């Protein structure tokens, strides 16, 4: 006990407990009392409390603290100053007091002292301890110590990676104060990256201009900042400017610029950058090569992607993933071959590889390969991974295996929005609207916020007059969730109302949309085409001209389709001929229009002309053209187009949907043996839809014997489906 002299320290403690901070005179009085009474414990407590409150200690206060340590310590402790004591304990004490519920005195008793502030700051920054680093930074600032630029840059990077915007801005304020003239390139680059990620592009630009000597890292950071903020055109402009001033790009620069080319949909610029990569001998760089693969995949240039891939001297799992993903995105069956090849070469697939393969199975409706991949997933025990499970549900939903999709869904204990959305989409794809609604409502009740994909999945399943009531319910739910003003959801609502035949509601939704885009107009034109509503179609055409969208290629394609479906083929031809630019969609809609109007020969001429012009059919083109020939009963024309896809030098390989259409075409013509033979030659196996199509053809042509064999395949794939029983009953009745 200190006796009567304890009144001063005790009063100070009471003030702190009441939330009152002492002024300088009180601090000096209390410290003097501790010194006179040799009150080391109380002195340590006061010292640490000043540091915790971020109080600036002037020379007089520091002298009083030194006096306490001198009066109370042994020979070793007398050598310590309050500076060394504060340097070590301030950040650690604050952390221990806040997190470990220790008293400040206890912390002081056990804390090592005497370390250098610079090294402590460096260590805290490297470990990403932002709060502690800021505390040390304040101590250094008070003492006039300037931290080294690399530690500051490390701290800024930590703020960037942890999205600590407020803390990063505090560090920026310190740097601004310390570096009033030019900005060190290392620090400037870190700050550019930080503000680029924070969405403060103007600040990033100002910082870039402040760097006196801009190196390739600074330029690359600024290019990345533009990209992160959706300014891909400015990123490409800056890249060109960088080359003009003689700065040579590195691998990170090339990767960013290639991403900009993709965002700008500029294949020409992408190929130009590729040539620069070759010239600078970066093509063999694994990172650059992988980025090139991704770019060519996004542009559907599989031949170019394969060339890049074949030239890569070393291919890791990331490079293989990029190649598999490129093939999967473009509906190429080579993704399955690559999946096997990478394993033969000893490269172990990871989750990204598995998801890419599952996506390929989903897009190509390839159940056989999907099941094989699923068995491998089970073998490596990653079925419970959320991302893998989501991809599996997508695949089984698309292949119409809802029971398996649901069983996978039920095995995941902690479901997220993406997993639930995949299951909702699976139900919607299979027209099981009630279950989709049930799961959607369950998401809401469990606090999961459905995203716009959930809404659009269900809305896409409500596109018939029988689905109108469900569509209206989804409209109400979108209002409840605040998504009705989202552009994609609004377009989905317009599409739903239009295809349900309620064009007035579609137009009303268009008028209330906060921002009208061309997709909304296209959906209404599609509805006019479906219901052959020429009056509303012409009215919408006038509106489109008024808003200046008539020159857009997708809008022109929709107008051609609308006039064709309304029987005004001449008007469709005029629009086609007036279009300044034609894409694959323009050719597709014209070819299918002529096929639907019975002009098969002219449709085939257009098909050949399209390829002469350098436009090659894609999956959608071939699907639409084959469907048109099928419904027009043009068997020979359909076979010719299908044969084009089967040609070894074709730019596109047929997918399951194309085989299904030809099976349907042959079935309609009564050529059932040929249809069955074609099924046996399908590279990835037939689906339930394939066998069901042949079963329907057997019923129509009273082929009981063949039907009894075919129905077994259907039962094997759809054990709970009643439709095959009804088909067989109908066939037996007709045959008797």
TrEMBL record:
PPR repeats lie at residues 215-249, 416-450, 583-617. Gene3D superfamilies: Tetratricopeptide repeat domain. GO terms for molecular function: RNA binding. Pfam families: PPR, PPR_2. One of its GO terms (biological process) is system development. Keywords: Repeat. NCBIfam families: PPR (TIGR00756). This is Pentatricopeptide repeat-containing protein. It comes from Ceratopteris richardii.
């Amino acid at each position: 006990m200190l006796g009567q002299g304890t009144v001063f320290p005790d009063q100070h403690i009471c003030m702190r407990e009441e939330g009152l901070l002492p002024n300088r005179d009180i601090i000096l009085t209390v410290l003097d009392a501790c010194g006179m009474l040799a009150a080391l414990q109380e002195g340590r407590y006061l010292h640490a409390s000043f540091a915790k409150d971020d109080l600036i200690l002037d020379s007089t206060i520091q002298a009083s603290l030194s006096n306490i340590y001198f009066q109370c310590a042994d020979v070793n402790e007398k050598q310590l100053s309050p500076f060394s004591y504060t340097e070590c304990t301030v950040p650690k004490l604050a952390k221990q007091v806040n997190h470990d519920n220790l008293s400040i005195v206890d912390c002081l008793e056990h804390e090592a002292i005497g370390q250098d502030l610079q090294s402590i700051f460096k260590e805290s920054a490297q470990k990403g301890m932002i709060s502690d680093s800021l505390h040390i930074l304040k101590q250094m600032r008070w003492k006039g110590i300037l931290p080294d630029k690399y530690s500051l840059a490390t701290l800024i990077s930590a703020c960037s990676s942890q999205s600590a915007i407020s803390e990063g801005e505090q560090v920026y304020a310190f740097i601004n104060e310390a570096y009033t003239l030019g900005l060190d390139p290392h620090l400037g680059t870190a700050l550019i990256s930080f503000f680029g990620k924070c969405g403060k592009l103007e600040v990033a630009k100002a910082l870039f201009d402040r760097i006196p000597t801009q190196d390739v890292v600074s330029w690359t950071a600024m290019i990345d900042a533009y990209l992160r903020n959706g300014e891909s055109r400015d990123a490409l402009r800056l890249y060109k400017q960088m080359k003009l001033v003689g700065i040579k790009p590195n691998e990170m620069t090339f990767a960013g610029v290639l991403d900009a080319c993709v965002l700008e949909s500029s294949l020409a610029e992408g190929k130009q950058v590729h040539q620069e990569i070759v010239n600078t001998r970066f093509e063999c760089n694994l990172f650059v090569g992988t980025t090139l693969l991704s770019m060519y995949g996004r542009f559907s240039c599989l031949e170019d992607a394969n060339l890049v891939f074949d030239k890569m001297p070393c291919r890791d799992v990331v490079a293989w993933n990029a190649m598999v993903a490129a093939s999967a995105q473009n509906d190429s069956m080579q993704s399955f071959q690559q999946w096997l090849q990478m394993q033969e070469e000893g490269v172990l697939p990871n989750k990204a590889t598995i998801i890419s393969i599952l996506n390929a199975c989903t897009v190509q409706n390839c159940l056989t390969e999907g099941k094989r991949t699923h068995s491998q997933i089970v073998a490596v025990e990653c079925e419970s991974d959320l991302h893998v499970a989501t991809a599996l549900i997508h695949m089984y939903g698309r292949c119409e295996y809802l029971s398996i999709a649901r069983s996978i869904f039920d095995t995941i204990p902690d479901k997220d929005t993406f997993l639930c959305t995949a299951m909702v989409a699976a139900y919607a794809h299979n027209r099981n609207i009630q279950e989709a609604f049930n799961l959607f409502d369950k998401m809401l009740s469990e606090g999961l916020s459905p995203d716009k994909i959930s809404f659009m999945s269900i809305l896409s399943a409500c596109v018939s007059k029988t689905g109108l009531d469900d569509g209206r319910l989804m409209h109400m739910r979108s209002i409840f969730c605040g998504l009705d003003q989202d552009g994609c959801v609004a377009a989905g609502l317009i599409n739903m109302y239009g295809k349900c035949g309620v064009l007035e509601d579609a137009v009303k939704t268009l008028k209330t949309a906060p921002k009208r885009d061309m997709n909304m107009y296209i959906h209404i034109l599609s509805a006019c085409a479906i219901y052959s509503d020429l009056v509303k179609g012409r009215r919408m055409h006038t509106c489109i001209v008024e808003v200046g969208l008539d020159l857009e290629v997708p809008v022109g394609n929709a107008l051609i389709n609308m006039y064709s479906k309304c029987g005004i083929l001449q008007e469709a031809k005029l629009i086609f001929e007036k279009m300044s630019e034609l894409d694959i969609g323009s050719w597709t809609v014209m070819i299918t229009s002529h096929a639907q109007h019975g002009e098969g020969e002219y449709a085939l001429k257009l098909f050949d002309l399209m390829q002469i012009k350098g436009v090659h059919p894609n999956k959608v083109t071939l699907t639409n053209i084959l469907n048109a020939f099928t419904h027009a009963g043009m068997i020979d024309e359909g076979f010719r187009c299908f044969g084009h896809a089967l040609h070894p030098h074709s730019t596109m390989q047929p997918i399951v949907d194309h085989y299904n259409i030809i099976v349907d075409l042959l079935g309609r013509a009564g050529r059932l043996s040929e249809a069955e033979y074609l099924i046996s030659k399908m590279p990835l196996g037939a689906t339930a839809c394939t066998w069901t199509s042949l079963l329907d053809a057997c019923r129509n042509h009273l082929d009981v014997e063949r039907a009894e064999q075919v129905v077994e395949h259907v039962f094997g794939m759809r054990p709970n489906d009643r439709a095959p029983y009804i088909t067989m009953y109908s066939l037996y009745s007709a045959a008797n």
